Amino acid sequence: MKILKFGGTSVGDAPSISAVLAIVKKSYAAGERPLVVLSAMAGVTNLLTKMAEDAAAGQSFQADLKRVEERHFAIVKELMAVKYQNPVYTKLKLFFNEIEDLLQGIYALRELSPQSKDLIVSFGERCSNFMVSKIAAQDIPEALYIDASHYVKTDSNFGQAHVNESLTDQLITALAHAHADNLLFVTGFIGSNEKGRITTLGRGGSDYTAAIFGSVLNAEAIEIWTDVNGMLTADPRIVKKAFSLPVLSYTEAMELSYFGAKVIYPPTMIPAFLKKIPIVIRNTFDPHFPGTIIQFDAGKTTLPIKGISSIAESSVINLAGSGMIGKSGFSGRLFTLLAREQINVVLITQSSSEHSITFAVNPDDALKAVKLIEMEFELELQANKLVQPTVEDNLSVLAIVGENMKKTPGMSGRLFYALGRNGINVRAIAQGSSEYNISVIINKVDLAKALNAVHDAFFAELKKTLYVFNLGTGNIGSTLFKQLEKQHEFLSEQNDVEIKVVGVSNSRKMYFDVDGINLSSWEGTLEGAGEVADLGTFIEKMKALNLPNCVFVDNTASKLPATYYEDIFKANISIVTCNKIANSGTFEQYKKLRDTARKHGVDFFYETNVGAGLPIVRVLKDLMLSGDQIIRIEAILSGTISYIFNNFKGDASFYDVVKKAQELGYTEPDPRDDLGGIDFMRKMLILARDAGHEIESEDVDLGAILPASCLAATSVEAFYAELLRENKFFEDLKERAASANKVIRYIGKLEHGKVAIALELVDENHPFYALSGSDNIISFTTERYKDRPLVVKGPGAGAEVTAAGVFADLVNVGA
Ligand SMILES: NC(=O)C1=CN([C@@H]2O[C@H](COP(=O)(O)OP(=O)(O)OC[C@H]3O[C@@H](n4cnc5c(N)ncnc54)[C@H](O)[C@@H]3O)[C@@H](O)[C@H]2O)C=CC1
Ligand SMILES: N[C@@H](CC=O)C(=O)O
Ligand code: NA
Q1: In the structure, what pLDDT confidence band is assigned to residue 350 with cuts at 50, 70 and 90?
Q2: Given 683, 728, 734, 786, which residue is catalytic?
Q3: Would you say the CB of residue 748 lies under 6 angstroms from ligand 2?
Q4: Residues 414 and 509 reside in one and the same domain
Q5: Both ends of the chain: CA-CA distance in Å?
Q6: Is 93 a catalytic residue?
């Protein structure tokens, strides 16, 4: 047989009770002969307690009593055929009259004893079980109401009575014998002492009743039906990706619950543990979901840990003293003292030098604990053998739990890597000797971020979420959003990566949504709901949200974002950028950014700084990392100029092809940056630096394409006007090349640490002769690629290929 226990929310209203009865009937129809244990209707226990306290305080309780009565009556009315209703109303009315008499007595005496309180709250379970048994009896005549106070015998510790096991055992065995054919509805939570006075079993009392009956009757399982899908890997209110665990061992369930998973209160389950009866946590409102089985062993699982739990509020007390700590007997005295005063010690760590002990307690107990220590160790403090204890507040405890940890090396490494990478400082660490639990103390402000980061780190088969803050919604930014939206499903389903854009800004507006901005309608959202853009505020907000796996994407051409990069790395946020400004500033800045990113364990990816989406930065990095030596780099790295000289033929004027290059999205927002060579210079500078050269922009020998008058233009319009005016200059150039059977190329070279960029006319034997469109080409001559260089070639400008490069960098963050 099985025990089916339903909590208060499962009997909270008529639809819930119908759901309960559907589950019970299904089990009964399958021949399972379950024993049902019900709690009081949701909220009723609290109301009964309040009424008793109000009565004792001389306040009126009638209105509340009426509410409780009406809630029960309404259920009878809704769920029972009229012909069965009357006797049920009558019995319930008797219960309510009894409650009223008791409350009147308390009111008159202005006194509420623990004994009367237990008696009053016992009516919650009595009413619900009686009522539901009668509703069930309409279809199952064997349904029978059982007042457990006749069978669960306890001492007289009202409010938290201890069960007399042998007597209870006898009584329940006899009850089961006498009613072998009945469907019993047993009141949870209540018992009675030797005089027959009603007692209650304390926190989790109905679970306890279920465990007691299950244990005595050797149930095959105890099903605890509640309103969640079993025990989850973490608190789903904080960790959206938390999922239900199919199997847990008793020990794992204990550890998880100890640190906050509120589904069951494990001490009440001990009778079941002792008899190795499985406990199954199931959801009344999702009865097809299998829920969580809590059993003797941890079950077969590939999960490295079972869950992450936490205590949000914790204080830490530090004790130190060379003359004291480590001496045998000290910790004994300390923890005996705390236990005697009922101060719960959440975790303890002792330094290896044994000159200090750190332990965590509930914040409400911290000052009391310090006072007690000062009293107990007064002499030692006076003799300076012990330093004055200190308290740290606003801390949280996070624990990873699982029996598998013992067998799997590297679990703590994974935990600390996830915390470290996200900039979460660990105050103290404790590993239980059982190795079922590793706990860390962290700052309270970091708790949500830590839970999510650690959850991602351990449940790798789940999706990794990247939280993106994107700056710039122009040519590249808007194309990136299109690509992200299109690829969302594939990434999520095939690659377990989810990219959530949670912040977006252009130069006018900014908008945030931690649940992820809908990328099919971002424009309207930003326009309609966005606030006035301010980069400083944007970055402050990004930091304040303190999200795990966070990436800042710079899709602007602005100088301003680079001034914040260092600060962003310091907040443990990775950066992906197509903006070349930061890397082509001073060498000092270039170096500082890398050092800071490395120090904070975050990524700095900028593949699109050179050759848009073409793999150039990555290739160079791999060559360097693998110990190759760069002898020479020759390259065409301006997509715009490449396009111009590939199309500046026939009748097309120079002016026309430049205009066209801009229309096609190849140019920088300001095309003077391309034609003036600045953009190319930046790329060569970045490559030279990545190749290990300490070089500044002034060191680059930059040959011009344009006549001086075009370079002097002070606006884009004036620039285009100059291009028109200088038409002859460009036609002459075209003619010179054509007559020599050559093509015009703007080529950059890095050799011996020197960078030069110059306009050249090349013939068909030159490797850079055959290019088309916006092609870039780069040839690396290295120690290993000496005879035939390593060449990368392809479109090196344009929104699609650039956004794709940013996208690829993004997916690689944290990989
Ligand atoms: N077009 C291409 O083929 C390639 C472009 N890139 C780089 O992509 C970057 C973006 O280029 P486009 O999208 O063409 O530029 P764009 O002019 O179309 O867009 C720039 C965006 O940045 C925003 N912005 C500017 N300053 C801002 C600030 N302080 N705060 C917030 N937002 C700001 C603007 O409002 C706009 O939304 C440039 O750095 C460029 O060098 C890199 C590789 C290739
Ligand atoms: N404007 C640039 C775009 C890539 O960085 C170019 O033309 O190469
Ligand atoms: Na690239």
Answers
A1: confident
A2: 683
A3: no
A4: no
A5: 50
A6: no
163 secondary structure, DSSP code: B
In this model, does residue 322 exceed pLDDT 80? Answer: no
What is the predicted pLDDT for the residue at 612? 97
3-class DSSP assignment, residue 478:
helix
What ipTM score was computed for the predicted complex, to two decimals? 0.98
Q: Which of 345, 375, 514 is nearest to 441 (CA)?
A: 345
Q: Is 608 in the pocket of ligand 1 (CB under 6 A)?
A: yes
Domain-located, residue 752: yes
Q: Which ligand is nearest to the CA of 801?
A: 1
Which CATH number is 735's domain given?
A: 3.30.360.10
Pocket-testing residue among 469, 473, 475, ligand 1, by greatest number of atoms within 8 A of Cβ: 475
Task: With cut-offs at 50, 70 and 90, classify the pLDDT of residue 460.
Answer: low
Nearest-ligand number for the alpha carbon of 578: 1
Chain-wide mean pLDDT for the chain?
Answer: 93
CA of 54 to the centre of ligand 3 (A): 74
Percent of the chain with pLDDT over 90: 80
Whether residues 504 and 545 share a domain: the answer is: yes
Q: Which structural domain range is residue 452 located in?
A: 307-458
CA dihedral 63, 65, 70, 75 (to 10 degrees): 150
736: in domain: yes
Q: Is 668 in the pocket of ligand 2 (CB under 6 A)?
A: yes
Residue carrying the six token digits 């400004």: 581
pTM of this prediction? 0.70
Which of 227, 253, 269 is the endpoint of a domain? 227
Q: Is the pLDDT of residue 140 over 60?
A: yes
Helix axes 114-137, 14-29, angle to 10 degrees: 60
Within a domain: residue 334? yes
CB of residue 476 inside a 6 A radius of ligand 2: no
Number of domains into which the chain is organized: 4
